[in-house]
Design a protein that fits this description.
The protein is mainly alpha-helical and 161 residues long. It contains six helices and no strands.
Length: 161
């Protein structure tokens, strides 16, 4: 049986862990070669992610220390959704080298949307394709980071291995 005190301690621990993760990502990004040389470069997104994590961690800590509990009755875990998202992540990892970033991430988007209750797979596919295509373009051409095109598309384009 969970008590209000144990839930507050759990949420405070979660907030501290998220805050520490954000700090760790910022520290590791600062240690990366070339991170300090460019204002907008490969280090931008890790710094944005670390700032977001630290903001969420601080908000969780504040809520826990103020005595507010997000889920008074405890946390209910939707096992089906967790399994779907986990399967989607595994599918993306398996498809990434072969199909490339855009199709593999579109599949992940569709599975994630299904896990959150979407019943419109065609709309999810179009949205996923648009978002992953935009991310691919920004990373490959804006930040000069090469996301994988996929061996299928490389062989169709005649690119050398």
């Amino acid at each position: 049986m969970t008590t209000g005190r144990s839930l507050k301690l759990g949420e405070a621990g979660l907030g501290a862990a998220v805050l520490a993760l954000g700090g760790f990502i910022a520290f590791q990004t600062a240690q990366a070669p070339g991170a300090a040389n460019a204002v907008v470069g490969p280090a931008l997104f890790p710094y944005l992610i670390s700032a977001g994590l630290m903001a969420v961690g601080l908000a969780l800590l504040r809520e826990a220390l103020a005595g507010k509990i997000a889920h008074g009755g405890g946390i209910e875990l939707d096992g089906g959704a967790v399994a779907l998202v986990s399967g989607g992540l595994i599918a993306q990892l398996l498809l990434l080298e072969w199909l490339g970033f855009v199709p593999a991430s579109t599949v992940l988007f569709m599975i994630g949307a299904r896990a959150f209750g979407s019943r419109r797979p065609l709309v999810d596919a179009v949205l996923g394709l648009a978002l992953t295509g935009l991310a691919f373009t920004l990373f490959n051409y804006g930040l000069d980071l090469n996301l994988p095109l996929g061996s299928v598309f490389d062989s169709l384009a005649g690119a050398p291995d």
